[in-house]
Amino acid sequence: MIGSVFIFGKFVTDSDTVPPRVSETEISQSALLVKTAPPTFAHRHIDRSDILMRELSSSPVVMMLAPAGYGKTSVISAALPALETEHRVVFYQCDQFDESPHWLVAACAQVLGFTSLTGLSRPDVSDTEIVARLLEQIRLLEEPVALILDNVESLTYEESRSILTLMLRYRPANLRLVFSGRQLPFAHGALRLLDDIRWISTPVLSFNFGEFKALLEHQQLPLPAGEVAALLRKMQGWPAGLALWLMAWRGAGMPDRWGGELGLYELSDYLRGEVVSHLSEPQRNLLCLCAVLGTFNDDLIGAVSPEILLAGDLQALLHAGLYLREVPGRPEWYRVEPMVAQCLSRLQPQEWRRGVHLRAFEWFRERDDAIAALYHAGQSEQGAIDSEWIVQQSDTILASLDTQGLTVWFDQLNEDQLYSSPALMQVACWTDLLTNRLDKAQNMIERLATLPDLDEAGHIALKGYLAGARGALTRAERHCRQALEILTPERFSVRFLMASMLASVSVAHRDLDGSRIWNRFALDVARKSRQSALEGMAHLDHARIEFNRGHASRCLTVLTQGREVLEASPHGSNSLAYARLLILKATVGWITGYSDEPTDSAIAHALMLCEERSDPAAAYGYAIRALNLMGQGQYALALNVLDDGERRLQEQQVDFVAYAWLHTVRSNIWISQKKFRRAHDCLEALLVDADSAGVARCEYSALLPGFSTLTLSRLHLMAGRAELCLEITDRWLRHTPEGFMSVFIRMIRAGALMGQQQPAEAMRQLEVVKKTFRAEGVNQQLQSWLPGLVAFLDIPQASLAPATEQASALSERERDVLNLMAQGLSNQAVADQLYISLHTVKTHARKINVKLGTRSRTQAIHKAKELMLI
User: Fold this and answer.
1) 597-636: burial string, b at 16+ Cβ within 10 Å, e else
2) Is residue 229 within 8 Å of residue 209, measured between CB atoms?
3) Per-residue pLDDT, 795
4) Confidence of residue 696 (pLDDT cuts 50, 70, 90)
5) Using CA atoms, how far apart are residues 360 and 293, in angstroms rounded to an integer?
């Protein structure tokens, strides 16, 4: 105790001169004031007191344990006012000076006024007896007391476990206990089995989407709406990480776009000061090694750096909860949170990191884990890392659908290395095909055709997949069938891709039964080869078939099955299939409303994964995000999302056919804004040399013809051209009466029939729509599409004006006047041509302005062109 007093004395001294003599009592009182001072709730924080209060309402003891930066003290400070209304509250800040429970007991005695506990710091009074007397005094107080111990990891003295256990075991009924810190200073043991303890950990303390949005609003930070969920995912909800990134963003001038390096310096500096500096050198080196490896176990660490493993204590790091997580489905494997790993790994020299990755590559290669080996090969930045091994493992690597790892690795190769092996060239070509870099793929296919020892089966397969990706469905079907006839069973990954493409071609031909046959064949290939990524992709294809049938609930079930398969695999979440599963799940969730998280959050997660994998399926994500914003009336933001998405896909050299979706969505936004001319021009550029049903589409965009038909028919309906709308919808429904797109097209047809005074037929069409919507639970806010029809579908918020009101309000004579004005004729010339008086022309012009909401001839002509009235 004397040592502690001496240290406190030095701590409060600001000069090197000898301070006035201060009594031990005065030092103790000053120290207690500091240690019991409750934390102040910062105005920039949001109130998250419910996290603690909710648990205290159901249990008298709460353990709130999480690494640095999860806002534990902020939660406590927010909860203190509520606690103080019903309890005598003692807040106690633990630190390195707590060498026994004496300071804690003294603090309680001081705050609660227990004079009988003074003078107990005698050698003949044990620590256990001191705590026991404290508990007895609290019991006799007969009023509620809340004791909050913050930074409990500092209680490292020998008796801390027995003291805290004593407090839990003999806690009086009027005492609430809160233990907060990075971890308990001892193993939890039987504490986890006690029913009256509630545990608050990282998942609860991580920000969710609503809390992060509330924080941004509270701090008045205009972060682009589309980036909110993406940033939350990137930081895994880590409060300190989010706050530091926002600080860096503000410092950079709050740009609309930013690179991946933004905030890394601030995050690295925080981790260095709050985490790394508190570790011993061996533990510090071990944590940085884990960060560089990303995913690891004891054996891997021992093989890569046995001296670090020997000096450090991995179990101690795991117990401390330093951003380390168990890998689901892989016992005794762990991973570091990606953002934290990126920051911590920067604390080591680049050459050291490369050496770690090189040794990890060798370790995984010896164990035939081609996917993990490929990742570390790419990170070692040595492209010539045994290309023969890559060739030998080509089918396994391709079956992983790990386009991110393959892209990184191939980008490091020079042309001599790449063109030294035809097998290596094929793997590179498949990588370009899967990421829709079709021009590069075509160049590689043409180069392969000039080689003397041509792999005919592999070459035909590449041509078939390229044709499907470009939307040349007939050629794709011919080549894929031909390739399947000559590919050997050992080429399981290519055989799977052929069957998957044939399933997609059948969907595009609206042959869903045929598509399901090919899908079952692909699933059989995937299961026989025991490749989880291929099996996940087969489930994705099956889900798309069900979605095209209009079976939303079945589609979601199949998507869940595919996600479970991938998440149970060590590398499944790195595959192309995983990102696409999430994209389709978010899409179906948006349409039906059946989603376990907000649309923005679900799309952001899926988009982040697609962008990491250079997957053109990101176009789906941008489209749904924009449609969601359109439904909320945020048209400018929706158009910005589309522009940003198109720019990113172009930067990745993705072929246009992969993101044609974005043009149809852009047209729908302009239709909603009644800018019909712009919508028409946008669709016209997409439908060059094809009608809406025959628009080119890549292998996963089978819905694009239906969506184009839907958009074009909606355009004609909203612009008051019901006859054209009926013609287009009739042609589509004759060939494709079933499926989700057909349901929406049927709804638009009903609107056109109502405009043509055919209510009986319109109601018959709507009955079909209602039946499907009710069976599949569709409850999307359709008023943003066709407000006049929503009432008939029993959907809320339906009492909106018909979309065609402005167009139908103009009389035929007013349209004639408007057309002649648009041709540049003066009022007198219009009167002469129509054989009416000048006064009548002016009257018509005034009525046109009123009906279109304009103030001049020029504005009326511009508005009429937007509405396609002229």
Assistant:
1) ebbbbbbbbbbbbbbebbbbbbbbbbbbbbbbbbbeebbe
2) yes
3) 41
4) very low
5) 8
